[in-house]
C-alpha cells in the first residue's frame, strides 16, 4: 500500500490535491507554518487514528474532509474521513471507493462507510491473515491481534521522533508505554515470525485433541466389548429370544453360530403400525411423517458433510506435500546468493565455475535463470501459505456443522420415540416393539465392535495418527521455535543496520560493533568491544537521526524482501532540523540574516561544509535505498531544506511551499 494523493475538501466546496509518486522519493519543502508537519497527522487520521491529532487552526477551520488515494498491487482505493465537529475530536464517518484506477471525486456528498469498516477493508487488502500474539504465561496483558494500524507505527517519523534519544518508534511512549508493548507484540507477525495460519493451527489442535479423546474412548469401549467376547453374544441371543426377535430355543456355544443368530436378529423390522403409517391422519401421524422426512434429510446432510471434509483434507494433504517439496527446492536455489557479486549476465562464462574458475564439463544455468526459478517458487509458496489458514478454517467449520447435524439427528430420533410412547398400549404392543428395538440396538453395537471384526486395530491406528498429528502441530506452535525465528529476523535486520551505520558515518560505526534493535526497550543498541551502548547514551542529534533512519529503513527492506503485509511507505518529517542549531552558535546579526535567508529559500549553503556534506549523505542514503527497493517502497519527506543543486532531490521535489503557497490555499482562508 502506497499513497498516490493526499486530498483536502474545503467547507466551501473546493478541492486541494497533493500528488505523490509511488515507488519513489517525494519531497515537500517549504517555510515554517505552512502545514508540512500536519501531513503525518492527516494521513494517520484518514487511516483510522483516534482521536484526530490534526492541529487546531487554519487546517481544521477550513477542511471538511481529509482523503487519500491509495495504490495496491491490483487496484486503487480512495478513502476519506470527515473532519470532526467543533465540539468533538473524532468521528467515525467515512467514504470509500475502489477501482483499478480511482478518479478522485470532485466532492463528497454523502458518507458510505465508517472508519472501523475502512480499517477492516485495508486489513483484507493488505492480506493480513487471522493472527494472535499470546503473551508468555505469568504476564497479565491480554492477547493482541495485529492489524495494519500497528504497522503504521513503523511508517511515521515525526520531527519529535527523529530527534529523540529515548524513543525509536512513532508514539511509542504514549499510554504508559502501551504503544511500545503493542509494537513489541505485533512486530513478530509483521516479520513473519508468527505463522500465517497460527490461529487455524490452534483451532485444529483443539479439534484434534477432542478427536483423540473420542478415539481413545471408542477404543476402550471396543476393547471392552471384544474382551467380553462370546459372553456378551450369549447374553444378547438370550435377550433376543426373550423379546421375540429369534425363534431359536437353543443357544449355541461357538461364536460363529452366535454371530449368525444375532445377524438374523438385526434384520427384524417394527410392525407397520409403528412404522409411521401414511394412513395415520392424527396430528401425531402428520408429525411422525415430517420427522421421518427430517431423518432422511439429516442422514443425507451427514453424508454430504463427510464428503466435503474428506475432499478438503485430501486437498490439504496435497498442498502440504507440495509445500515440503517446494521448500526443499527453494533451499537448493537459495545458493544463488553465491552469485550476487558476480558481473552481470553477459560477462560471465557459463562454462566456468563461478567459485573456483575451472572449466565445467557442462555449462551451468545462468544466475538470472536460477533467480527467476527461486522467485517463482517463492510466489507459489506464498500462495500456499496464504491459502492454508482459509482451508483449515473451512475444514473446521465443516466439522462443526457435521457435529451439529449429528446432534439434530439424535434429537429427531428422541422426538419420534416420544410420540410413539404417547400412543400407548392400544397401538399393537408398542412396548413390545420398543423392547425389540432396544435389544436390536445393543446387538448392532456388539456386531459393529465384535471380536471377529477386530476394529480395535483401526481404532489404535486412529489414536496413533491423532497423537502424531497433535505432536506435529505442537512443533509448529512451539514458542521456542517462534523465538528462534524472531532472533534470526532481528539478526538479519541488525546486519543491515550495521552496514548502513557505516555508510552514514554514525558514532561507534567502526565495522566491529554490531548494531541491533531492542524490542523490549524500543531502542537501538550498539555492541562495542567495551559494552553495549543504547541510543539514549549516544551523543549528538545527528546520530539520533541516523540511527532512527537506518532502523526504519532496515525494517521496511525486510518487509519488502519477505513480502510481508505492511504499508509500503515511510513518512519522514524535518530530517535536516538537527543541523539548525548550528546557525545560532556564536550568533550575530549576519547569522540571523542567514537564517531568514534559509527560511525563504531552503538553501543549505549557509551551513558549514561538514553539515552540508552530512545532509547530502543522508539524502543520498534515502535515494539509494528507495531505488534498491523500487517500485515496492515509497518515502515522503517534508523539510525546510531545498538542495537546489542536487539532481535527484529536484526530481523528487513534489511541491515548494514558499511565497504564500501552503497546504491550505490562501483563498480557503479568505473564504472563512
Automatic annotation (TrEMBL):
It comes from the Bacteria. Residues 198-225, 288-315 form a coiled coil. InterPro entries: DUF3732 (IPR022205), P-loop_NTPase (IPR027417). The keyword Coiled coil applies. Keywords: Coiled coil. The keyword Coiled coil applies. Transmembrane segments: none annotated. Pfam families: DUF3732 (PF12532). Gene3D superfamilies: P-loop containing nucleotide triphosphate hydrolases. This is DUF3732 domain-containing protein. It comes from Funiculus sociatus GB2-A5.
Amino acid at each position: 500500500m502506497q499513497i498516490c494523493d493526499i486530498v483536502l475538501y474545503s467547507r466551501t466546496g473546493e478541492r486541494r490535491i497533493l500528488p505523490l509518486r509511488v515507488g519513489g522519493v517525494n519531497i515537500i519543502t517549504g517555510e515554517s507554518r505552512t502545514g508540512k508537519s500536519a501531513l503525518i497527522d492527516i494521513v494517520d487520521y484518514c487511516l483510522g487514528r483516534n482521536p484526530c491529532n490534526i492541529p487546531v487552526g487554519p487546517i481544521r477551520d477550513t477542511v471538511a474532509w481529509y482523503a487519500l488515494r491509495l495504490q495496491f498491487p491490483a487496484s486503487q482505493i480512495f478513502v476519506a474521513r470527515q473532519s470532526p465537529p467543533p465540539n468533538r475530536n473524532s468521528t467515525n464517518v467515512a467514504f470509500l471507493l475502489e477501482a483499478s484506477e480511482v478518479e478522485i471525486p470532485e466532492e463528497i456528498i454523502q458518507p458510505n462507510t465508517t472508519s472501523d469498516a475502512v480499517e477492516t477493508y485495508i486489513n483484507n487488502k493488505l492480506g493480513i491473515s487471522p493472527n494472535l500474539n499470546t503473551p508468555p504465561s505469568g504476564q497479565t496483558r491480554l492477547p493482541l491481534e495485529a492489524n495494519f494500524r500497528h504497522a503504521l507505527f513503523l511508517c511515521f517519523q515525526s520531527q519529535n521522533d527523529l530527534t529523540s534519544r529515548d524513543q525509536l518508534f512513532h508514539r511509542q511512549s504514549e499510554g504508559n508505554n502501551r504503544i511500545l508493548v503493542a509494537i513489541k507484540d505485533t512486530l513478530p507477525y509483521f516479520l513473519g515470525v508468527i505463522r500465517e495460519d497460527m490461529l487455524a493451527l490452534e483451532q485444529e489442535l483443539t479439534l484434534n485433541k477432542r478427536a483423540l479423546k473420542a478415539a481413545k474412548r471408542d477404543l476402550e469401549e471396543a476393547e471392552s466389548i471384544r474382551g467380553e467376547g462370546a459372553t456378551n453374544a450369549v447374553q444378547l441371543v438370550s435377550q433376543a429370544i426373550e423379546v421375540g426377535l429369534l425363534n431359536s430355543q437353543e443357544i449355541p456355544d461357538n461364536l460363529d453360530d452366535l454371530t449368525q443368530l444375532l445377524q438374523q436378529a438385526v434384520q427384524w423390522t417394527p410392525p407397520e403400525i409403528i412404522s409411521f403409517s401414511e394412513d395415520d391422519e392424527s396430528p401425531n401421524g402428520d408429525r411422525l411423517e415430517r420427522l421421518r422426512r427430517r431423518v432422511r434429510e439429516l442422514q443425507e446432510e451427514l453424508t454430504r458433510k463427510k464428503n466435503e471434509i474428506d475432499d478438503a483434507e485430501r486437498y490439504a494433504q496435497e498442498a502440504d506435500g507440495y509445500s515440503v517439496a517446494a521448500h526443499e527446492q527453494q533451499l537448493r536455489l537459495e545458493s544463488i546468493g553465491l552469485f550476487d557479486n558476480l558481473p552481470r549476465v553477459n560477462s560471465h562464462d557459463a562454462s566456468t565455475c563461478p567459485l573456483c574458475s575451472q572449466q565445467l564439463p557442462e555449462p551451468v544455468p545462468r544466475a538470472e535463470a536460477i533467480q527467476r526459478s527461486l522467485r517463482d517458487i517463492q510466489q507459489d509458496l506464498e500462495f500456499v501459505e496464504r491459502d492454508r489458514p482459509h482451508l483449515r478454517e473451512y475444514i473446521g467449520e465443516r466439522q462443526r456443522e457435521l457435529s451439529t447435524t449429528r446432534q439434530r439427528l439424535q434429537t429427531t430420533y428422541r422426538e419420534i420415540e416420544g410420540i410413539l410412547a404417547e400412543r400407548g398400549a392400544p397401538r399393537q404392543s408398542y412396548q413390545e416393539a420398543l423392547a425389540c428395538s432396544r435389544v436390536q440396538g445393543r446387538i448392532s453395537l456388539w456386531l459393529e465392535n465384535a471380536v471377529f471384526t477386530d476394529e480395535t486395530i483401526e481404532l489404535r491406528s486412529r489414536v496413533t495418527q491423532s497423537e502424531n498429528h497433535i505432536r506435529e502441530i505442537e512443533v509448529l506452535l512451539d514458542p521456542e521455535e517462534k523465538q528462534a525465528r524472531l532472533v534470526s529476523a532481528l539478526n538479519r535486520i541488525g546486519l543491515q543496520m550495521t552496514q548502513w551505520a557505516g555508510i552514514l558515518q554514525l558514532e561507534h560505526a567502526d565495522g566491529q560493533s554490531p548494531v541491533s534493535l531492542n524490542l523490549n526497550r524500543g531502542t537501538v543498541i550498539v555492541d562495542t568491544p567495551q559494552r553495549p551502548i543504547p541510543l539514549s547514551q549516544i551523543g549528538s542529534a545527528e546520530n539520533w537521526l541516523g540511527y532512527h533512519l537506518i532502523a526504519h529503513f532496515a525494517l521496511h527492506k525486510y518487509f519488502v524482501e519477505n513480502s510481508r503485509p505492511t504499508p509500503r511507505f515511510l513518512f519522514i518529517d524535518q530530517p535536516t532540523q538537527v543541523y539548525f542549531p548550528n546557525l545560532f552558535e556564536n550568533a550575530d546579526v549576519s547569522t540571523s540574516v542567514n537564517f531568514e535567508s534559509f527560511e525563504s529559500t531552503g538553501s543549505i549553503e549557509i551551513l558549514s561544509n561538514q553539515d552540508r556534506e552530512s545532509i547530502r549523505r543522508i539524502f543520498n542514503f534515502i535515494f539509494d535505498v528507495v531505488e534498491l527497493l523500487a517500485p515496492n517502497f515509497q518515502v515522503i519527506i517534508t523539510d525546510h531544506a531545498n538542495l537546489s543543486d542536487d539532481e535527484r532531490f529536484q526530481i523528487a521535489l513534489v511541491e515548494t511551499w514558499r511565497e504564500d503557497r501552503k497546504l491550505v490555499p490562501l483563498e480557503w482562508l479568505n473564504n472563512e
